[in-house]
Amino acid sequence: MSTFRTCDITGFKVDNTTEKLFRLNAVFAVVSLLIAALGAILLVFTRWQDFHVLSSPWYYRIIGLHGVNALVFWIVFFEIAGLYFGSTVVLNSRFCAPKLGWLSFILMATGFILTDVMILSGNADVTMTSYVPLKAHPLYYLGIILFAVGALIGVGLFFGNVALAKKEGKVGKTLPLFTYALMAAAIIAVLTLLSGALVYVPTFLWSLGLVESIDPAWYRLVWWGFGHSAQQINVCAMVGIWYLSVRLVLGGSSINEKVSRVAFLFYILFISIASAHHLLVDPAVSSTWKVWNTSYAMYLAVLASMIHAFAVPSSMEAAQRRLGHNKGLFDWLIKLPWGNPAFSSITLAIIGFGFIGGITGVIYGMEQTNIIVHNTLAIVGHFKGTVVIGTTLTFMGITYYLVPLMFRRKIVAFKLAKIQPWMFFFGIALLAIGMIALGMFGIPRRHYDIAFTGGPFTYDFNLASGFVWVLFGLGGILSFLSMLIWILIIVVSVFFGPRVNGPQDMQLAIAAPLGEETTPHKRKYEAPGTLVLTIIFLVTFLVFYFLNWKWLAAIWEIQ
Predict the structure, then answer these.
(1) Cα-Cα-Cα-Cα dihedral of 389, 391, 394, 395, to 10°?
(2) Minimal CA–CA distance to 114: which of 83, 97, 138, 96?
(3) What is the per-residue DSSP string for 305-341?
(4) I need a labelling partner for 360 at 20 to 30 A (CA). Which of 374, 434, 448, 504 fits?
């Protein structure tokens, strides 16, 4: 029988099993992020040719270690914790199958440890994508499979928790928007994890010698059904946290919740199939499939992101104006609670995700303009704008609320916590922009020695790239330090921080929900400031969009 505690801050009922599993998954998420961060700084000082700290075998080894920990383990551990939170605590409901929850965690933790051990021991120097005919030790593939099976059980438990809450009358006509976003993420996760099973199980058997061969073209196609879609789970969870944060910090909600829900539906229908940009130079995939996936499917997925890009800031503006910040277009923006590290993290994540990750995502996802940067460092710069500034900074930010609410501990070094999101944002922004610029210079995506030192021929890149390498390095250092600060703050807070004994111990306020606006106003639009900001974003996008077409035309010079 489930036992609960009633949170004296939020009033929610917290299931005992949920609380324990949430804490364990969150702790393993932070451990994964630390491993990813250590790998990242080593890669920064290896790609930066003036330092080149790693040998060739260790460079490719650390690429694999960084990739699986940053893009799989950190993200999925955190998201499973979020799924449990959103399907029980937010719904005031109980955990449907505690034993399966523990099985899920044990499988995920075992897979995480097994995979990392195989990589660090030199038995899986195949990088994260592990394209065949490269072959790793069977235990590497087994680790990935165990982790994926555990995650799939966790996703199934989310659906079970929601169904139980519905059965027990804890859910009305619709789910809360945050839980609805997690539902979209969970649906995409099922498709993603099944794609992973489809590709990794035969590859595991191949590594054991039980299957004669794996077709490389088939492997690449199916693997990206797993690899690309995995990042779309992040997008749904990330946007859901944006809406949740507006509610927590300002008491606001989406100005049109129905439209926001439709946008999540677009993610489910279209974002998983818009992965062709990874396969644009693969001859086994037809041109028709490539064109369709880099146009219609991608445009509808982008439309969903554009809806959220307007809906979330407009919900902030509407809430601020109801609180009396009505002067001009941007008084509401200036008077947002920028000193709240959770809020600043979320807002900076929106800016970085839109202006860096979003703009480059659309352009690099198109068949023609992708060719300029395909397999260059610019693609990695795009990742930094989406998964790091977008998802990771969002997850970091909401943790400042989750530590006191779920771990019942105060945030230590709170003044430092206020600075940390800004350090991380500017560090990753520098790193991402540096990578994008270096990609424009033709710097390859993964090559260990771009100068071909000691080879029969060498290549010298444009001298201007030297300055960009410095920006790249500074961004890497700043973001690494800020990530260590965040990890230190969270770890010390969770294990040694003062206990939270009630609302009086909360360092971050939780706003009361705002009702419908009853005060008459003269505004024609609910969020005029956000409309102007959206126009600025679209103009920026169009400038960069047409520049890429200009650069594409300049490449194909015929004499």
Answers:
(1) -130
(2) 138
(3) HHHHHHHHHHHHHHHHHHTT--STTTHHHHTS-TT-H
(4) 448
Is 153 part of any domain?
Answer: yes
Q: What integer pLDDT is reported at residue 556 of this predicted model?
A: 57
Pick from 62-66, 255-259, 516-520 the range whose average pLDDT is largest: 62-66
Q: Measuring CA to CA, how many Å separate 106 from each of 16, 32, 34?
A: 18, 15, 20
**Domain assignment of residue 121, yes or no:** yes
Sign of CA dihedral 477, 347, 79, 507: positive
- Which 8-state DSSP code applies to residue 103? H
Please, what is the angle between helix 341-352 and helix 414-440, to 10°? Answer: 10
Judge contact between 493 and 412, C-beta under 8 A: yes
| 379 within 8 A of 444, measured Cβ to Cβ | no
Out of 66-80, 212-226, 427-441, which region has the weakest mean confidence (pLDDT)? 212-226
The CA-based dihedral angle spanning residues 52, 57, 58, 61, taken in that order and rounded to the nearest 10 degrees: 130
Task: Record the tokens describing residue 266, joined without a space.
Answer: 């677009």
Alpha helices in 208-295 (DSSP H): 216-250, 257-266, 287-293
Quote the CA–CA distance of 54 and 47 in Å, as a whole number: 9
Residue 64 belongs to a domain? yes
Residue ranges of alpha helices (H) inside 405-556 are 414-440, 465-496, 528-555
Find the domain containing 124 and state its range: 1-172
The residues with which 409 forms a beta bridge, in sequence order, are 499
Short-list 42, 71, 65, 75, CA closest to 477: 42
Secondary structure (3-state) at 13? strand
At 518, is the pLDDT very low, low, confident or very high (cuts 50, 70, 90)?
Answer: very low
Angstrom distance (rounded) from CA 297 to CA 381:
23
Amino acid at 55: S
Q: Which long-range contacts (CB under 8 A, 24 or more apart) does 546-550 make?
A: 548/363, 548/369, 548/372, 549/368, 549/369
Question: What's the token pair of residue 17?
Answer: 């099993």
**Do 49 and 38 meet the contact criterion of CB atoms below 8 Å apart?**
no
Distance from C-alpha of 369 to C-alpha of 465, rounded to nearest angstrom? 21
The pTM of this model reads 0.95
Residue 243 in domain: no
Q: Which of 272, 270, 267, 277 has its CA nearest to residue 366?
A: 277
Burial 265-295 (b: 16+ CB within 10 A, else e): ebbbebbbbbbbbbbbeeeebeeeebeebbe
pLDDT tens digits, one per residue of 63-110: 999 999 999 999 999 999 999 999 999 999 999 999 999 999 999 999
Identity of the amino acid at 157: L
Q: How many angstroms from the chain centroid is the CA of residue 453?
A: 36
Q: How many CA atoms lie within 13 A of 56 on its CB side?
A: 6
Number of structural domains, the chain?
1
What is residue 286's predicted lDDT score, i.e. its pLDDT?
Answer: 86
